[in-house]
Specification:
The protein has 416 residues and is α/β, with parallel strands linked by helices. The chain has helices spanning 106-128, 148-156, 158-163, 185-205, 219-229, 262-268, 295-312, 324-333, 384-389, 393-402, and strands at 4-13, 56-61, 134-143, 212-215, 242-243, 291-292, 317-322, 346-355, 370-371. Strands 1, 2, 3, 4, 5, 7 and 8 form a seven-stranded mixed beta sheet that branches. A two-stranded antiparallel ribbon has the order 6-9. Strand 4, helix 5 (219-229) and strand 5 (242-243) form a beta-alpha-beta unit. Helix 4 (185-205) runs parallel beside helix 5. One of its GO terms (molecular function) is phosphatase activity.
Length: 416
Amino acid sequence: MDPPFLLLLTVSFVVCGLLEVTDFSMSSQKGFDIHTDPDPSAGMEIGQSGEKESRYKYTTITGYFLQDDPATDPFGFDFTKTNFGLIDRPYDSDTSLPNNGRELTGWQRFEHHISKLNQDAQKTRDGSGKSADVSYKLLFLGRHGNGFHNVAERYYGNVAWDCYFSALDSDKDNVMTWSDAHLTKEGIRQAQEANKFWKHQIKAERISLPQSYYVSPLDRALETANVTFGDLQPDGAAFRPIVMERAREGSGIHTCDRRSSVTYIKSRFPTFITDADPLLTEDDTYWDPVYRETNEALTIRQAKLLDSIVTKDKNERISITAHSGAIAMFLHAIGHQKFGLGTGAVIPVLVKAEPLSQPADFIDDRDKWQTIPKCPVGLDLETVGVQRWKMGLKEFLAGVENGTLQIEEMAFKGRH
């Protein structure tokens, strides 16, 4: 077997709520392409045409992060108070460091461990004469900051949101708009906190920045990535993440998950790379106003996203900014335990990627997508928010923005 190759990925994902994950076996899943028949990316690498995109089997390697441990409670877990969750432990590769790495931080030794695995893998590969690569990837999965859709879902409640309000562009009084939802002031603050934490880690833990960045095309993810990483680039270089269509949240019905045009994205984030992903068409051809993507389809899409990255990008440290539902299904695709993320949170994962001898056969199952549920009899859509909170939406939003209402403390099962 060919030797392992290690890759470090930092992933941030954006979503309208905490996804309730459905258990199902990847081996029994029907495949799904992000676009209907045919998938424009089939047989294509990122930014290229006419070249086959490899397929991989993914396995989460545990024992490196607290988030791998079933005993760790995701509720209230704070990655900024736990060194990203990195477990302080020795590595076999420490013996190749001066003084066994005793003067180095945990992150320096861990990054060396990854590089050593890559070096050993290369030596084995060269010696064996085989061409297939087994690789180990370190993923930092991060969710976008709080968006206006998150506020609306909390205000109206899950039932009213799913059966009615999620299909609207805004409330009737135009207090807020949640189509392709932007970050609230609280969401921007959360992204600023992530930026501050990265700066602390760079200085105190000597952690290295990602070498490559990928981001969902939805505005809340784009802005989260920009605020988090924009001023961290070496020598003041421009922040240039690749915008990836497959990194978007579960799609359909909910207008918060309907993206804006590429022209609009360029106007908002002119340094972002929007011409590398052939799936990223000018207009949103994926979002469906009648049907909503299933968890199964979203899991397949996230696996294909990682396939496209692993096939092309050989960097060891990679960042992806996206959504809660997308992250939940991403974790499912790589065999990680369930670990819900609040807005602005990050989870690191070490993953083993093994090339498949034959590409997976992805089948369009859009006929299984779901329509919007009916609202319960007796649900008063005009007053449901006031009944829940004893205040109007404008007052509720103000409370969230000034910090007097802590909506993240509330349990919710939406997917955004």
